[in-house]
Amino acid sequence: MARIALDAMGGDHAPQATVAGALLAVAELDPAHSVVLVGRSAIIEQTLDEALRGEHAALATFRDRLLVVDAPEIIEMAEKPSAAIRAKPNSSMMVGLRMHAEGACDAFVSAGNTGAQMAASMVLLRLYEGLKRPAIVTIFPTAEKPVVVLDAGANVDCSAAELVQFARLGAVYAHDMLGRANPAVGLLNIGEEAEKGNAVTKEAHALLAQSGLHFVGNVEGRDLPAGHNHQSALDVVVCDGFVGNAILKFYEAVAPLMVGLLVKAGLPKDRIMGALRQLDYSEYGGAPLLGVRGVSIICHGRSSPRAIASAIKVAVQAVDNHLAEHIGKRLAGPEGAAGATA
Amino acid sequence: MARIALDAMGGDHAPQATVAGALLAVAELDPAHSVVLVGRSAIIEQTLDEALRGEHAALATFRDRLLVVDAPEIIEMAEKPSAAIRAKPNSSMMVGLRMHAEGACDAFVSAGNTGAQMAASMVLLRLYEGLKRPAIVTIFPTAEKPVVVLDAGANVDCSAAELVQFARLGAVYAHDMLGRANPAVGLLNIGEEAEKGNAVTKEAHALLAQSGLHFVGNVEGRDLPAGHNHQSALDVVVCDGFVGNAILKFYEAVAPLMVGLLVKAGLPKDRIMGALRQLDYSEYGGAPLLGVRGVSIICHGRSSPRAIASAIKVAVQAVDNHLAEHIGKRLAGPEGAAGATA
User: Fold this and answer.
1) CB contact under 8 A, B225 and A156
2) Which of A100, B10, B242, B331 lies 20 to 30 Å from A48, alpha-carbon distance?
3) ipTM
């Protein structure tokens, strides 16, 4: 039984996309789970009414599985994170995360300002010991199974020990959320040999080799779309947040470029989109911020109702599988301490 | 009139691909230009005979525009660069670059061991003052015009001042080789605002803003396939060699992944390949190593005869347009000195 707080005001298409996503989620989830819409309650109620009179009329029976909690302030997408969370303690972001921190619900989901969500999650949920910042995880669709890539942008200057921490966080995530037993962890680098790379990745390679994780060596850029490196199929790939963010945004933009060229050449768009469906990010919904003492799910600002519903299901899964507690144990264990102090 | 030395033994498909590429190039180039095949002369002559008896019989009349220079040793693709160039002074790589350094020819082209080519070019051609290593340039196909991206792997730990040097090198390249007047230079980063990024890119942003270059601000990963950022169409994007190499290899692998999915879904391969032709790297041939006092063109190890021929034409263009001399002037000028010492 999980109670999920959803930032109803967060995202480019809020509150229409968030309200509709919440409806889709409760319609599909076991009735034991519930969703709390956090935001300006009058607007949320009105949006709910409109959705149930219009496109989502078939879901009217699920309305009473949605709760609404009022939060009068809104953190805009472009606001500076630390200033915004100080200036707007009654924003949907802060109210929703405070409910989670105080035990009134079990997880928080937002498609709003990612930096603010990270800052507010650090303040209200707090980090596990030994971490400086949480990591943003992302799922890369590949030719084989999807691969967990982190950090995707929270940590732009990383030490080798921090990359090892990402490896531990990612391995727990791959196990709990994707069902990968003994996840294979690779290190993003610019050559397959151990001695290749920059100063940080060379050191990280040595630390990962003795980390107790199932480390399968360096991963080159070309191995990411393939889903395997020279040695193994991949479950987790670690990198600093600068390169992770650059490649993630690049990946998101390459597919539309190619689809555009194919459509321009007269190939049928529906068949193209069908063929490339496994590369579609929105299928994977949101991603948990890893390293905080709770479940804080980050969604893309452009999230559709379907993506919001997927993210709510990810939150339920994270709660059910005790993802945060497992991460805490892994970081506190003898291996975790070794990684953090190496 | 340019005389191009080609490493006949370099590359995954040498000497067949290099010999055939040289034939294609002289058949298409103005007769004033010539190509010197450097390598094991008996094998080269035999490969030439076979090519002219077989697939390339129509090119027989161009054989006498090819010279052959013997070099008995071969640097293999997997050899350690610095050890290989010391151990094999009579390799095709070293002999060809020495001919260029001594003025017996005007440029050198290889699809062989890239690290060895870089090391040998530094030793034999030497760097312009103020540089620690040359930069590898690569051309990213985009939805608009191709964009020059550097460094693509030679420099994995870069200072902000080095990123500014790459910007100067790339701007000269874009002007001389791609005909871009006053090239727009962007900085690969993880947000469009000046204050975003890691320690190095934040400092580089400030230096580039006062560099005298046409600096158009930060470029996010998603801007690369688009060919423009929030401010401008892009001609040059600078980044350290770690992230440049990771994204380049990622890009090279994403297209085949997508094509594979589309073909599997029953879409016609020939029409797909036709539609995506503008994304094909081999159309652009090789890329000069920037910063050495000469023309040293790096080709992909997998180069086809067509890619080798393109690279030879790139070499001719670099010689004709005085690319290396222009780079030397730009680095020695008041702007160059400012960038190097900032």
Assistant:
1) no
2) A100
3) 0.87
